[in-house]
Specification:
It is a single chain. By secondary structure, the protein is α+β, with helices and mostly antiparallel strands. Helix content is 56%, strand content 18%. It folds into two domains: 183 residues, no CATH class; 184 residues, no CATH class. It is built from 13 helices and twelve strands. The chain has a six-stranded mixed β-barrel with strand order 4-5-10-7-9-8. The protein has a two-stranded antiparallel ribbon with strand order 2-3. Strand 4 and strand 5 form a beta hairpin. The protein starts with a helix and ends with a helix.
Length: 409
């Protein structure tokens, strides 16, 4: 086999320009395959990260819409959810880890000469559990601070950047709606929310009772009303059953008749991004299939060149057979030669594909992930195409009659 590889390598070097042009189709095909898979894998990993940033196994319950003068207002306008609903869900629905009542609103936060318009969330400690959100520095709220409407605040990373720059915010005082709050913690960064495009780190979190009594309470119809309830369940499989039981429980608690429509909505925030992830996977497979066409074209080109090579080297084949070479030796020689052309083209294609993928990622700002699996796939395809498209020319060379081959001009 070593001698066969040396003979094949000499044949490739003897016609270097033709061999390079022959490999060009394979280089383009493998490069396109690597690039498409890298872009698709990068987009998939970004979506997975965004799904994780929302919180695993999360359900969001929002109030329903209301009618005013015959006009149907948007979701959340009815104020039908309460803190008692959240407590009932947490205690009565199997599989629920926490149910976090939450209220929110736009506010202006001020520190010294700096100010920033952001979103304030009135929460309980259960909210951070539901969202899988950790406090990077400092600490979170205690139940006593929620019960006593304490004036303490957790800051998102974006707010810290705007108000404090390089200074340590812990223990500092910020003013929210003209009320002084002490910063007790800074949240870990979660990045952009793919569902609405908002920066999740552009937020301040305060105790729910404090938000109602001192910051956002004047906008509420009912003192017990909340804007939404975040529900974390034990697993994704349990979310369907939990959703059905929450639906029945809330209809019962809100005393809705069988004919009455729901005055709330239950959504799974990750569903939108999971649909987007499925679409991204389908698009990646489609692009990879299109790129594979280039590999097939490259394989046809290699078959064509190998047939030409067999014709040009007919006397060489006859001479080898006359000196004792068996048909399988001749077949292996040409098969190894075609495979080497494909594998070399695949190697160059991997390098080109990685460079192109990285370049696209930097220029367009797209996430890129060149996985070892995609590189292995490119090599496997190139090797398989070399064997498949090189077999017929190799078999044709092996069937040549030695006498006729030596007489060939």
């Amino acid at each position: 086999m070593a001698e066969t590889i040396r003979i094949a390598w000499r044949a490739i070097r003897a016609n270097l320009l033709r061999s390079t042009l022959t490999m060009l189709g394979m280089i383009i095909g493998v490069a396109a395959l690597i690039t498409m898979v890298a872009i698709g894998s990068g987009a998939q990993s970004q979506i997975d990260e965004q799904i994780r940033s929302l919180g695993a196994n999360l359900l969001m319950i929002q109030p329903g819409s209301s009618n005013q003068g015959g006009v149907r207002l948007g979701a959340g306008s009815r104020q039908s959810l309460t803190e008692e609903d959240a407590a009932a869900i947490a205690s009565e629905v199997p599989g629920v880890v926490v149910a976090a009542p939450t209220t929110s609103g736009a506010i202006q936060v001020v520190h010294g000469n700096a100010n920033w318009s952001t979103l304030a969330g009135g929460i309980t400690p259960a909210y951070l559990v539901a969202r899988d959100w950790r406090v990077e520095t400092g600490r979170g709220f205690t139940l006593d601070e929620v019960d006593t409407a304490a004036k303490v605040v957790l800051l998102g990373g974006a707010v810290v950047d705007k108000l404090f720059e390089d200074k340590d915010p812990l223990g500092q005082v910020v003013r929210i709606a003209n009320v002084p709050f002490t910063v007790i913690g800074v949240l870990t960064r979660k990045g952009q929310n793919a569902g609405n495009g908002r920066d999740q780190d552009d937020v301040v979190l305060i105790p729910l009772s404090t938000a109602k009594l001192r910051v956002l309470g004047s906008n509420k119809v009912s003192r017990n009303a909340v804007d939404f309830i975040m529900v974390k369940v034990v697993s994704d499989e349990a979310s369907v059953s939990a959703q059905e039981q929450i639906h029945r429980l809330l209809r019962q608690r809100h005393r809705l008749s069988a004919e009455a429509p729901d005055d709330f909505q239950i959504r799974k925030p990750s569903e939108t991004m999971e649909a987007r992830a499925a679409a991204t996977r389908s698009l990646t497979f489609l692009l990879a299939a299109i790129a594979s066409v280039s590999l097939v074209v490259g394989g046809i080109s290699i078959m064509n060149i190998m047939l030409v090579s067999v014709t040009e080297r007919t006397r060489e084949i006859g001479l080898r057979q006359a000196l004792g070479a068996r048909r399988r030796d001749v077949r292996n020689q040409f098969l190894v030669e075609s495979t080497m052309l494909c594998v070399l083209g695949g190697l160059l294609g991997v390098g080109v594909g990685v460079l192109v993928a990285v370049g696209i990622g930097k220029l367009a700002g797209w996430p890129i992930w060149v996985s070892p699996a995609s590189i292995a796939l490119g090599f496997a395809f190139s090797g398989a195409i070399g064997v498949f498209f090189g077999f017929y020319p190799a078999h044709k060379a092996a069937l040549l009659d030695p006498i006729e081959a030596l007489r060939f001009e």
